[in-house]
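Researcher: Re-running this chain for the archive, since the previous output was lost when a drive failed. Same request as before.
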Amino acid sequence: MIYSFGDCTIDTARHAFMRGGAPVHLEPQVFALLTELARAHGALVSKDQLVQSVWQGLAISDATISARINAARTALGDTGREQRVIRTVSKRGFQLVPEVSGQDEQDRPLPAQPAAPARPAPTVGFATAADGTLIAHSVSGTGPPLMRVGHWLSHLELDWRCPVWQPLLARLGRDFTLHRYDQRGTGLSGRDLARTDLDDFVGDLLAVADAAGLARFAIFAASQAVPVAIRFAARHPDRVSRMVLYGGFAVGRALRPERSGEMDENTVLGLIRAGWGQPESAFFQAFIRLFMPDGTPEQIASFARVQSQSITAANAAGLRMAVDRFDVSDDLEEVLAPTLVIHARDDAIQPIAQSQRIAGAIPGARFMTLDGRNHVMLPQEPGWAELMQAVSEFCLRAE
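Model: Regenerated structure tokens:
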């Protein structure tokens, strides 16, 4: 469907926006927002309607909506002061001022339907690591296999209902048979953390792949899972078809020279020891917000619940110390699998320089940056959709 107003045109079939006859790039959420306003033909569109159509009902802040409205106004040559194209109706919503041409009943949004009942979490199975540790794993979705490497912190059942992780699991499950697991010491896996060498975590990944009968598969790894994936790919090149590495590092925090603006290990450990498992603790809240400073209250609360129920305070500190000492510098050049490295520009947990180092050393690796400062990419961010699209396009590419 094509909508026209003023000197602007929205082509929903081609996902194209033009102003004055020239194409203008719009982020996906800004495009969806403008389309929703155009569909209304000047009628008021409430914030609730926008949340349902643009953000699929996710809990988001007014600041997020305002940011997308401002971006739309910029694309239209409008401002919040003038409001010649997009008018804000205080406490009610937004509307397009110019007359809109173009209408198709089939292009109208469907009436809101009652939310479907939550699907039960996938069945959990157990693989046995070389030292006897039980590693919980599960499978969901359809398509070629994709292994989501275990990271800080997961819980196979709680993640399925978490507003931070569930959208990611559902999106990856659209294109892949998604294999995921709780790393040792966390979630539903064995809680003994007597062995925390990097090779132990690599062995856990191997055990899960063998238990699932995966001879060759693509990998999606984030944060501390990145060095695990790198060493696995270097040592088992025949098992890995492709890799997407997001927000990771080659050299752990404790082994890196101190840099201005980077959180030091003692500060992180202090926050863990002072407030772990106490959702209302200022220390625990501060720790959570390191990972997702732009999280909504619902996302923060759910993420905190997953964190606190995934591991004990003592093990959280011990695991953090182990992870901060991972080093795969000598493994990078041994990776043969096609690799895409992605990092948020202002990530507060892992510096972008670490991903640049990874991409520079893995033969043929590609590098991609996303706007944002959240270490855990949130579904309401434009970068989230870009990340998901990149994973699908890269891992589905024929070898």
